[in-house]
Amino acid sequence: MGLREDPPTFTFPQASAILVSYRGEFERYVSDELIPQVASLQDAIKRSGSGAKEVNRLGILYARYGRYLEAQGEFEKILKKDEYTPALVNLGNISYLQGNNKTAASLYDRALKRDPKNKVALSGAFRSRVDLGDPGSAAKYLLTLQSLDPNAAAALGPAPAAPGRASEASAEARLSWED
Q: Measured between alpha carbons, how far is 107 from 122 in angstroms, rounded to an integer?
């Protein structure tokens, strides 16, 4: 059996081509998972007469799959009719995830005016104030949260002593969606 003088060469695809292929497959997977759930929730919305709770659930579903534009649209539909606390909190979460901390802080504040003991809104208000470089306000929200739920407050970490210190902690904190 004869041997080749040159070893075989392999050509691997470019990283960008792999990424494009991966994104396409991921989007297909998300759509396959999302479509039946969206249909089910849309049926529930029709049966409820466009009830805020059901529309909010649809927005949460979109948000959990990273479809923030669709989620935002659902939450805004609710807010056109009513200052529904869960929709305010969830829209605040989307703003926070998109780096719009001023908008997020404003939405969390609106939610807290309606429900001052809302733990998800307090957590969001803390994170957004930390990222805005407002440690005094962040500490206020954290203290309120500690009085309501010490475990939730501990998961956020300590209040920042100086602007920017807790940004790492806030980035690590998981957002909760308000149902």
A: 11
pLDDT at position 83 over 60: yes
Domain borders along the chain are 19-82, 83-179
Does the domain made of 83-179 have the CATH classification 1.10.10.10? no
Model confidence at 150: pLDDT above 80: yes
Number of neighbours of residue 94 by Cβ within 10 angstroms:
22
Angle at CA of residue 146, ends 127 and 52, nearest 5°: 60
Reading phi first (left if > 0) and then psi (alpha if -120 to 50, else beta), residue 66 is in: left
| Cβ atoms within 10 Å, residue 100 | 15
Largest CA distance in the chain: 83
Cα–Cα distance, 105 to 37 (Å, whole number): 30
In the chain, % helix, strand, coil (3-state, to 5) comes to 70, 0, 30
Q: Which CATH number is 19-82 given?
A: 1.25.40
What SS3 class is residue 154? Answer: helix
Give residue 159's pLDDT: 63
Q: State the sign of the Cα–Cα–Cα–Cα dihedral 125, 111, 118, 71.
A: negative
